[in-house]
Amino acid sequence: MESKRQQKYARLIQKELGEIFQKESKLLVGRGMITVTRVMVSPDLGLAKAYLSILITDPEETFDKIDSHKKQIRHQLAKRIGKSVRIIPEIAFFPDDSAAYAQHMDKIINKLDIPDSSEEDEEEE
After folding, report:
1. Higher-confidence residue: 33 or 116?
2. Cα(79)–Cα(13) distance, rounded to whole angstroms?
3. How far, in Å, CA of 34 to CA of 67, rounded?
4. Cα dihedral across residues 25, 27, 29, 32: positive or negative
5. Is the pLDDT of residue 6 over 60?
6. pLDDT digits (tens, 9 = 90+) for 9-52
7. Partner of 51 for a Cys bridge, out of 65, 89, 96, 119, CB 3.0 to 4.6 A?
8. For the residues of 56-93, what is the DSSP string, one character each?
9. Is the Nucleotide-binding keyword given for this protein (predicted)?
10. Which domains does the chain have, with CATH numbers?
11. What pLDDT shows up at residue 12?
12. Higher-confidence position of 19 and 60
């Protein structure tokens, strides 16, 4: 379980990474939309795991670009939060597959053959 300090740190990093991807990384991202869905910080505050949801563009290609530009993104993060925190964490990016999983589950649910309730069942209730 994360401490309050880790949670506060994670929220700050999530907010700032979101703004970095929105405003400053247009060359890196192009016209794609990147959402930072979750950030988890290690107990020593030295590592932040950021989960990204990528829309509109090819997720694998965009994720590879982001992963190869980690240093620049960390530098942008340091500019933004450097005066309010002691340690700028190393950032590890991971794809967030929750949207794809939700679509998959939606397809499965739509394929189910659920018969309508008959009038006899309704009378019993």
Report:
1. 33
2. 12
3. 13
4. positive
5. yes
6. 999 999 999 999 888 777 677 777 888 999 999 999 999 999 99
7. 96
8. SS-HHHHHHHHHHTHHHHHHHHHHHHTTT-S---EEEE
9. no
10. 4-97 (3.30.300.20)
11. 95
12. 19
Residue bearing tokens 């939309």: 33
Closest by CA to 78, choosing from 2, 40, 38, 24, is: 24
Structure tokens that stand for 79 in this block: 């500019």
CA–CA gap between residue 83 and residue 77 (Å, rounded)? 11
Scanning the structure block, which residue is given the tokens 């190393």?
90
Token pair 């506060």 is found at 8
Model pTM score:
0.75
Beta strands in the chain (DSSP E): 33-41, 47-55, 90-95
> What is the pLDDT at residue 91?
95
Both tokens of residue 48? 């932040």
37: tokens are 């869905």
Tokens coding 63: 């994720």
